[in-house]
Write a structure and sequence with these properties.
Blueprint lengths: L3 E7 H7 L1 H10 L9 H10 L8 E8 L2 E9 L11
Antiparallel strand pairs: 1-2, 2-3
Length: 85
Amino acid sequence: MESIDVKIFHGKEGFYKIKDDWDHIVNTMTHTRIGHVYEGYKAYIDALDEGDDQSIFFVLIHRNNKPISICPMERTVKKVRLLKK
């Protein structure tokens, strides 16, 4: 029976914890691009000011204890203004 495990990692600290899983996933891909590699996201994460990283999180999915997917996400707030006649 297959088991699926989903974990969420927050901010810079969480990002640094998933490096081995990230590298494992990239190494199993047949076609990788610059956006797939850990170092590309690391450059962005490292450039964030202290505290700005709390809106960043990563969803890590394991199947049968092997990492199969990482979804980088960023929580944002959008202000919407409505016009009234």
